[in-house]
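Example record

One chain of 440 residues, shown exactly as stored in the release files.
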Amino acid sequence: MQAPPQPVAFRSALRYWLKLGFISFGGPAGQIAMMHAELVERRRWISEQRFLHALNYCMLLPGPEATQLAVYIGWLLHRSLGGIVAGLLFVLPSLLILVGLSWVYMAYGHLPAIAGVMNGIKPAVVAIVLGAAWRIGSRTIRNWLLAAVAACAFVAIAVLKLPFPLIVLGAALAGWIGGRLRPALFQLGGAHAAARASYGPALIDDDTPTPAHARFSWAGLVRVALIGCGIGLAGWLLLAALYGPASALAQMGWFFTKAAMMSFGGAYAVLPYVVQGAVDHYGWLSAGQMIDGLALGETTPGPLIMIVAFVGFVGGWTHALFGPDALFMAGAAGAVVASLFTFLPSFIFILAGGPLVESTRGNVRMTAPLTAISAAVVGVIVSLAVFFGGQVFLAGGQPQWQAIAIGAVATVALLRYKLGTIPLIVACALAGLMLSYWHV
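Predicted structure tokens for this chain:
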């Protein structure tokens, strides 16, 4: 009989989380698959059942589920410090890379070669967003009622211009009512119901007792929640004291905290809310820059929601927060503030709620309101594709035939031939570069 692995040294876990931060391409599905292959199958740090139990909880939460899963497993292994380190190392490489790419974009984006590359990538972004809507919809829209919820969400945000939080609340209310009148229509499918494989005994196995630090108590939940909220409040008060409550940095702190609480369904679901606030309300960046930022986010490791770092960087740069001679520092400050307030709620959710989840293993409830929210997310993502498509394919009110051609080919390559995101973006970037020189 195969023996369970030895306890994991903190240094070994640190090396793994840092490595994961640099190689975690492919969005949440790819990142979760990487963690499963490494932690469940090869290293056997955690069993399949415990892994899926943690993942189910993370799927219920707003925020990036892959990041939250890393925090959860790090917390199980090495207490709160382990969870904090796992989460930080998962997102830090992406933040540093995006700050560098954002600087190149703002400082040299006007050059013809870079402009050509971005003109090729933009249609690919529209195809990627459509692909995200298709993938999520194929898992979520299982009957006419959920399709109607998705359609109503599309109309609400694309036509009526309702704020995203209101759409989430409306979908939750529809699910709460529908779950009582027609519960069969809101039963979740088997997104994670495949038969559990056995990879041998694990360090944290199915029947491993809950570690002492992971046992639930109301006092512990309140203590962690108060510490986490206190850190966020102290950070915002510091920004308000240094730069004023109406300053761009203070506004970013408050706005991205709200965005983090609205990100049910992944980054694509919350992007319309970010567009409404960052582009339309605050004017931190333009719609075209938002599309460019999403393209950069797709080419970097880490969670896609790290696009907020690009939004913060461009907002800090364009507003010259520290004067015209410190544009990079202003951009970097905006990127750090946006990232901090976006990810802090995820750490609080896991470190405060993890013990409660461990105490209810085997009894996680997937409720009708959350099913309805998942359906509404599909309509919201489609609206995002329509918005981006209008910016790219009808720039200046005229059809952009080259962009339309690249977008059509990219959509077919993505949906029909399952081309990966990175190869797709590279190919479209090369096409845009060649077309720019062909016109010259």
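Notes: Residues 189-197, 362-366 have pLDDT under 50 and may be disordered.
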